[in-house]
Each structure stands twice: as C-alpha cells, then as structure tokens.
Design brief:
Distance between the termini of chain B: 26 Å
Number of domains of chain A: 1
CATH superfamily of the largest domain in chain B: Type I PLP-dependent aspartate aminotransferase-like (Major domain)
CATH topology of chain A: Alpha-Beta Plaits
Structural class of chain B: alpha/beta
CATH architecture of chain A: 2-Layer Sandwich
CATH class of the largest domain in chain B: Alpha Beta
Order of helices and strands of chain B: EHHEHEHEHEHEHEEHHEEHEHEH
Low-confidence stretches of chain A: none
Oligomer: heterodimer
Helix content of chain B: 25-40%
Shape of chain B: globular
Structural class of chain A: alpha+beta
C-alpha cells in the first residue's frame, strides 16, 4: 500500500482532532514487516524525532503487527525519511490517544 | 588444549561474544512478539545483525537476510525453496552433505535431476566441465565457496557468470568462507549466499542464514508464527519473514552481532591473512615429515585448513593420538564430504583436518608440527 497522500493525511489528522476534542491525536506508521518497523524506528531516532514502537491499535488494522508511534506534527518528516531510505510502510493513521491514564494497567 | 578444529566451530571467540549472549539471555523478549523494551531490544539487535550481514556479503539490504539455525538449514531453505518438479541442478564434488543430501533427496523422489561436476585429485575444479553440466532445465547451481576438507577456494564470480549464461541461479555455500574470504553478492552477481554463524563469523552455534538477491523468490520451507498478519491463512509473503517461522534465536544472534562487529573492526583481509599465515607455517612445517601427505592446493585460493594423512594410518588413529597424547583438537574421518574424499582417494582412510583461526598462536602451530613429527615417527 502506498503512503497516504500528504493532503489526505493532513485532512485525516485534522478530522481526528475535530472528532476527539480535548484528546491528543497520535499518528501510527503501519508496516507489513517487523524488520521495516525496526529500520524506520532507528532512522527516525537518528533524525532526532520522538518515536516509539507500539502495538498497532485494532482501529488501525486487525493484525498483531507493530507500528511506529509518532507525533502527528512529525508525520511529514517521518514520511520523507521512509521514502528517502526506501523503507516501505503501509500508511500513517491518526488516532486519538489510546492510553487512558486512569486505567488499571493490569486489566 | 590446543584447538585446531575451527572449520567445525570456532571455539575461541573474540572478546564480547560470550558477554553479548549472556546479556541477551537476561534481557531479551521475543523478536516481533511484543512492543515492550525486552522485545524491542531483541528486535533491534536482530535488525542490526541483518544489516551487518548484508554489508559483509555485499547484499541487497537487511530485509533480504533471513536467519536459520546454521548453513545446513539455510541451504535446505534455498534448495527446497527454489527447485521445482522437473528442474535440474548442478553441484560439484567439493560439496558438503548440506548441499548434496537435499539435492539427492529431490533426485531420489523423482522430482529433480542432479549433475555432480568432478573435482581433481588436487582439489581443483574444471570450470569447463562445470559449464558443460548445464541443461536447458537447469534451475540452479549449488556450490561450495571453499572445500571444508582441503580449504580450496573456488571462483564463485566465475561460477555465477557460467550459471547465469545458462539462465540458472547460483546458490553459494559460504559455511567455510563467511568472515574469512571476501564475498560481494552485488559485484559477483550471486543469487543466494548461505552462511553459518558459529565458524568464522565467531557467533554461537544455532545461528546462520541466507542472503537472497533482489528478484530471487525462495519459497518458504517452514511456515507458522510470524508475529504479523495473524489472521491470514498463509505465512507472510515478504522478506525476511517469508523464510522465517517461529521465534528467532535472538540470544544467539546477539553473539553473532558481536562477532560481526569484531570482524568489521579487524577487517576481513587482516583476519584471513593471519589465519593463512598460521596455516602456511603449519603446512611448511609438516610437509617434509616422512610419511606425511597433504591434500588440496588446486583451488583459486585457500582458507586456513590443512588436511593430511600419515602413510596409510587411519586418520581417526592419528587424530586420537593428537588428542590424547598432545591435547590437540583436530577432526578426522569423512567430514561430511564423501565425494571430495573420492576425488582425493581418501574414502577409506579419511583425513586429519587441521583448521586454524587467527586466534591461534605461532607457538600452538609449532606444537602441532612437533606432535605430527612424533606421531609420524611412531607410526612408521
């Protein structure tokens, strides 16, 4: 799957923010391969951007793969890094923050 | 103990290898099986190892490096994954059973045919005979880069050129050369390179794999857990997961990565020069001993192996004397290379294989020469 069109991604991020007032929207870079996730994670960290490997939210895709959790403000740069280094992704998905700070972490 | 069995497994490992394995055992989770720190540490280590292996072999990148448990498993993956019913394969008599047995299994099952190119009594390969062995339906040639018996190195760039001229692929068994002889997949147009981690890459046993050129599609030998695409009926089609099923040996790969970093720091040419200098010192020291016969030398180069016999003495007896009387570890017998022994005329006697690492010392070499001298004198 090609990366989401830049304008479309911006629209999606904005839509997610409007749909979730008061909540932070994060972006998840999706991959087919764990190896690709590791490679882009290293490249993004080398570029000085904040990122971490995350479980892929079920809303993004129904599989057990990993994704790269980034700030949506960095999405364009991450997308560029992936393209410049030939790391294939399956798109970037904006989602409202998945972490509920009040939850019981052992649930 | 003096260890001269490095072609089987390098026992002496560089600093950092054992420590890396020990640290990993206490710190790693499953690669690609979670997103917690323990899993990510394992995943990043495996990724770094893939990248370094691709760099070492002039490969197409980390994603084209698939891990296996050793070179034999990697060769099984490559050969069973590439050969189709009705295909023909070419190999040479220098091949290890890790190449011969998978091919003979296909042949015995009636699904493929195999041609074995002879090796000369000096270990040499006739490249013209290799060229003549190809047929219109030849899918691949599977060749050893260096004999595990004599250490003779074969010109894989030339073999690849010949294979490609016939529209076939070249699969290289680099078990004896990975880490000591430069390999450049891109320059030499090699299609698949199979390696083991526990020999000259200085990793632990249970590590190995294959590097697959872009455009070469190897069907998986094993399928199952992949860590991704769990709802799909079929195993992922993308590399490297395509050729890996089940949890990787990340603990071992951590040690392999330490070995790769060591090789990168020392330089492969320097490591080979040191090992060859020791092998040459040994060969020069035993060549003139009455009754001692050395094998090989007809290749395009050598690894740090010296194979010999003492008169017509059973190679197992000589190796046992070396072990019991002198504390010197070598390997005797057939070395899983039956056709090479036929070529050398040593099917019955076998051969005593001394295989050196740059971590051996000149003093150890001289002790080995003295031991062979005494044994030869005793057996005459």
């Amino acid at each position: 799957m090609e990366l989401i069109d830049r304008m479309e991604l911006n629209d999606l991020i904005e839509q997610a923010r409007q749909d979730n007032p008061g909540k932070r929207v994060d972006c998840y870079v999706l991959f087919a391969s764990h190896t690709d996730a590791m490679e882009l994670f290293g490249l993004v960290r080398e570029a000085g951007l904040g990122a971490r490997i995350s479980t892929t939210p079920r809303q993004a895709r129904s599989c057990c793969g990993v994704s790269l959790l980034i700030g949506c403000d960095d999405a364009a740069r991450v997308e560029l890094i992936a393209r410049e280094n030939g790391v294939p992704t399956e798109g970037i998905v904006p989602l409202p923050n998945q972490i509920d700070p009040n939850r019981d972490v052992y649930c | 103990m003096i260890y001269f069995d490095n072609a089987a497994t390098t026992m002496l490992k560089p600093p950092g290898v054992a420590e890396a394995v020990a640290a990993a055992i206490g710190a790693f989770g499953g690669v690609g099986r979670g997103v917690h720190g323990a899993s990510l540490d394992a995943g990043m280590t495996v990724f770094q190892a893939r990248r370094k292996l691709s760099d070492l072999f002039g490969g197409p990148g980390a994603k084209r490096v698939a891990f296996a448990s050793n070179a034999t498993e990697a060769l099984n993956v490559a050969l069973f994954g590439l050969m189709q019913p009705g295909d023909h394969a070419v190999t040479t008599a220098a091949s290890h059973n890790s190449v011969l047995r998978p091919l003979f299994r296909l042949q015995d099952a009636g699904t493929a045919d195999v041609s074995v190119v002879p090796i000369g009594s000096d270990g040499s390969l006739d490249y013209g005979a290799f060229d003549a062995a190809f047929r219109p339906n030849t899918r691949l040639a599977a060749v050893t880069h260096a004999s595990n018996l004599t250490g003779d190195v074969y010109d894989i760039a030339c073999l690849a050129e010949i294979a490609h001229a016939h529209g076939a692929l070249l699969v290289v068994d680099a078990a004896q050369t990975a880490g000591v002889v430069p390999i450049d997949m891109a320059k030499d147009r090699l299609d698949v390179v199979c390696f083991t981690g526990h020999k000259s890459l200085f990793g632990p046993q249970g590590t190995g794999g294959l590097v697959v050129a872009e455009g070469v599609d190897v069907a998986p030998l094993k399928v199952g857990g992949s860590g991704t695409h769990s709802y799909d009926r079929e195993h992922p089609a993308f590399m490297p997961e395509r050729l890996e099923a089940g949890t990787l040996n990340a603990h071992g790969i951590a040690g392999l990565l330490a070995g790769l970093i060591y090789i990168e720091g020392k330089g492969i040419d320097a490591l080979r020069a040191e090992a060859l200098a020791l092998a040459t010192r040994f060969a020069d020291g035993v060549r003139a001993i009455p009754g001692v016969k050395l094998y090989g030398g007809g290749g395009a180069g050598r690894t740090g192996i010296v194979a010999l016999n003492v008169d017509d003495a059973d190679s197992s007896l000589v190796a046992d004397m070396l072990n019991v009387d002198f504390g010197i570890c070598t390997r005797a017998g057939a070395h899983c290379a039956p056709l090479m022994h036929e070529a050398l005329g040593t099917e019955t006697q076998g051969a005593v294989r001394f295989s050196f690492s740059h971590l051996n010392t000149a003093e150890e070499i001289d002790a080995g020469i003295r031991a062979v001298t005494e044994i030869a004198g005793e057996l005459r």
